[in-house]
């Protein structure tokens, strides 16, 4: 189990994470939060109040769309990626790969301080 | 929100706790009514799922409800998280209303302040409705705000909620200034073309002849 990550560390990457979670199949808001948590082994256990507004913002940007659906007698708002969302995810993946490669190259050269 | 049952198996005490939570949240959310209703429905649905998960994990019902509420955050925290989206939604809603009604108001202005038949084109319009540059600024502000808070934010810098709200207030103020100016101009022109009544001298002469 990894340590939970502070939400402010994710600033700028939350959009891409949410789009990636929705890429395989439509999900409702709470399932998105659980998917983020489980796929990161608990590191991305984000407060609910962060995720729902971010989903609304992505919908406003046209990157995801949502519809009410009824599953086992329960009404849920399911979010799905739009064509623009798929394109944006591809772009953000490429940006992240460049960024992470650069940061790893820099940080990787430094010896980590020994912990006592 | 009270009375909206979540998990059918939740007992009355747990249901009352959830209703109280949603009631408090409902009072703290400010913005378009439909958007607030949607947020509350989504939070309710998420709480429902979270309680079901905790119950499946073996938690007692009361504990499951408290854990779900803890995970979602206090109503002030949830409301604060939605503030930006609600402000932007309100700004877009208001601006869309101005954009939709703008042409009708424009036609109404043209009917009131008919451009002079001998002055054609933009100059004629400007002479009849001198606040047109102001309206052009309002239209550009409205269009810009709508673009930078909607689908174009993939390519354009996104307007912050505060900026969107400020732009909306500016558009509303310019619209009010435009309306007041047009009404004032119309009132003045109506006064200037009103047929003159009996002049004071005529009134005076008729008064003296009567005497």
Describe the 3D structure.
The complex is a heterodimer of chains A (116) and B (211). Chain A has 116 residues and is of the alpha+beta class. Chain A is built from four helices and three strands. Chain A starts with 13 loop residues before the first helix and ends in an 8-residue tail after the last helix. The model of chain A has no long low-confidence stretch (mean pLDDT 85). Chain B is mostly helical and 211 residues long. Chain B is elongated, with a radius of gyration of 29 Å. The interface between A and B is medium-sized, with 24 and 29 residues.
Observed structural traits:
heterodimer, A: 116 residues, alpha+beta, three-stranded antiparallel beta sheet, B: 211 residues, mainly alpha, 75% helix, Perm_prefix_1 (chain B), DUF1700 domain-containing protein (chain B), membrane (chain B), transmembrane (chain B), transmembrane helix (chain B)
The N- to C-terminal Cα distance of chain B equals 80 Å
Name the chain pair whose interface involves the most residues: A-B, 24 and 29 residues
Roughly how many Å is the radius of gyration of chain B? 29 Å
Oligomer: heterodimer
User: SSE order of chain A, as H and E?
Assistant: HEHHEEH
> Quick one: biggest sheet of chain A?
3 strands, antiparallel
Mean pLDDT of chain A: 85
Structural class of chain A: alpha+beta
Structural class of chain B: mainly alpha
- Tally of alpha and pi helices of chain A: 4
